[in-house]
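Structure ticket #2291
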Amino acid sequence: MNIPHHAEATPDGVNIMTRNDAGVYEHVELVTYECAVARLVVGEYDSQPDIGLAIHGAVADGGNNGWFDFTAQQHLEMWRWLVAAAFICDMKRENGTTSVAEADGTTSQVAIYSNGKTGIVVYPFSERLAMANNIEGAMIERYGTGQGTEHAITFYTRMIDADAGVISDFGREVLAELHDHFIADFEQNGLPEQPIAH
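Resolution: structure written out below.
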C-alpha cells in the first residue's frame, strides 16, 4: 500500500512526513500536539483524510506515551473528529460521492448520506458541527459542562468500532437518525434562508 503521508509521535510533538519520488519519507514539519489537534478541529485535513488520520493517530500515540496530556476539550474534539471521519468514509463506501460546486468556484467530491429515499451531501466539518450541537449540546445542557463533556466522550467511544477502525453499528444508527431528522426538516420546512451544511 502506497501511503504518501506519515505522522509520528515524538516527545516534542507530531512529526509530519511525506514520501518523495524515491519512496523515502522526508520531514515536512514538527507541530505541537495542541497545534495538531487545532488543525484537525478547523478542518485543515478534511480534504486529505489520509494525513488527517495519520496525524490523529500520532496525537493519540503521543498521549499514550505520556508526551501529551489532553484537556477534556481536546479529548472530546479528537473523538468527534474520529467519529466524523469514520462516518464520512462509511458514507463514501456505501453511497459514493457527488460533485459539488463550492462557493469559491471549485468543485469537490462530497460524500452522500441516503436514507434509501432521499440523500444529502455530508462534509466532515459540518458533521463535526452537527455532532457538537446535537450530541454534545444535549449532554452539556443535561449534565453541565464537566460531566456533559465526559458523557459525550463516552458516547463517542461507543460510536467507533476501535478493533475494526470503522464507525460502529451504534454510531451509524445515531448519525442516521440525526440525518433523517435533517432530511425530514428540509422536506417539511424547505431550505432555510441562510445556507447550512450537514
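Closing remark: The longest helix spans residues 72-95.
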